Structures are given as C-alpha cells and as structure tokens.
Amino acid sequence: MATIVCYGDSNTWGAIPMPSRAELGRFAPADRWPGALREKLGPSHTVIEEGLNGRTTVHDDPVDGLHKNGARFLPVVLETHAPIDLVIIKLGTNDLKVRFSVSAYDIADGAGHLVDLARASANKPGKAPPKVLLVAPAPLVQMGWIADMFTGGTEKSKTLGKEYKRVAEDRGVPFLDAGTVVTSSMVDGIHLDKPMQRKLGEAIAAMVPGILAG
Asked: Which of 40, 45, 47 is nearest to 200 (CA)?
C-alpha cells in the first residue's frame, strides 16, 4: 500500500470556479484531481488530500493569516501522515497575488524549498524520505472580480512552468507543468472546472507508477 499526499491550494481542495467572491463551492471528492488520481491508481494506493484555499509556498499572508504559509504547515503534514511514499506539491498560484510582490523565479524557489522540506523529513517509522513530484500550476487566464488581487499575475504565471522545471531539475525530482495539460476556467481565471480537474488527476496518475518504482 503506497501513501501519496497531495499538497496544494484551492485547486487541490476542489474549489468550483467562482462567479463572485461570495459563491464558494467545492467539487465532490470524486470530481477533484486527487479523487481522479485515487480512482486511476486503485485500492493499492492511499491518496490523501491536503488542499487549503489561499495557501502559498512560503509566504505569511497578511490578510488571510499565517496558516496560509505552505512551509509552516508542511512539516505537520509530513509527520501526520508518515510514512509517506510520495508527496505531490502543487502550489504557487496564490504567490501571484499583488500583495506578495514576488517574481516567477522566486515563486519557483519557494516551491523548491517545500521540495527540500519533504526530502529532508524523517518519515518514520522505517522509511526513507518520500519521493516528490513538483507540479507547476496552470497559468491564469482572463480574470473578472478577482483581477485586482492578482494585478500583474497573469503574465508572471505564464513563466511558472519554465521556472518550476529549473527547480525540479536542480533537485533531480520529477516535474509536471500543469499548463501543458489543463487550462484555468474563464469563470474566474484561476480555478479548474470539473473536466480539467479530472484531466489533471489522470495525467498525474500516469506518472505515479514510474516515480514510485524509480
């Protein structure tokens, strides 16, 4: 039985694309990308969803709270679910918010720090540190009500795939550019709709056996 942790933000949580800030909904478990991953891999794999709306890679959020910092919470997740065979890290979209004022290069380095934390974890009892799959988020598309929060973020998001690939290659970990597989919804420009959630889960599922065997 292999244990896989999906560590991400609202797209891992399963947020339905939002016509307005007041209309927050969540896809059913089977319709989220970790659910599609679970379905494809079958009962010999335990897939754990650790998605949080607004989670960043390494930044304390001055508006939404310190708990949104992915680097703060990842060590807790790693101990909670140990021993873990694979951690899938898919974060970075919220780092594009104008309040953080960081480049795509720095966002990728933040994701790299999370990779380092996962690979340095004790993973007790009785296992080597987990393997890591780094996933670059899909670029933002035309935004409506949420646009001011992400001023300048759309252009930066288009280079995340390149920067995440750099980070993954530097560390010798597998990498997926989600933007080559899925596109963000035109409803809000940031979240994945139901078909894209499934498509992403299936793409990741195709990679997992080789990663675990490697």
From this structure: 40
Q: Decide if pLDDT at 210 tops 90.
A: yes
User: What is the C-alpha separation between 98 and 124, in angstroms, rounded?
Assistant: 39
d(CA 131, CA 75): 15
DSSP 26: B
Nearest to 91 by CA among 164, 149, 198, 186: 164
Q: Which residues contact 210 (CB under 8 A, 6 or more apart)?
A: none
Name the one residue in this structure whose structure tokens are 């560390």: 171
The domain tally of the chain equals 1
- For residue 26, the cross-strand partners are 15
Q: Residue 194 phi/psi, 5° resolution? A: -60, -45
Q: What is the C-alpha to C-alpha distance for residues 81 and 136, in angstroms, rounded to an integer?
A: 23
Write out the two tokens for 169.
Answer: 């290659």
The amino acid at 91: L
- Sign of the CA dihedral 96, 78, 119, 32? negative
Instruction: State the Cα–Cα distance between residues 90 and 173, nearest whole angstrom.
Output: 14
Task: Please report, for the domain that includes residue 129, its CATH number.
Answer: 3.40.50.1110
Q: Which domain covers residue 78, as residue numbers? A: 2-213
Cα–Cα distance for residue pair 110/123, rounded to 1 Å: 22
- What value does the mean pLDDT take over residues 50-62? 98
- 143 — pLDDT class (breaks 50, 70, 90): confident
Show the beta-strand stretches assigned E in 18-144. 45-51, 86-90, 131-136
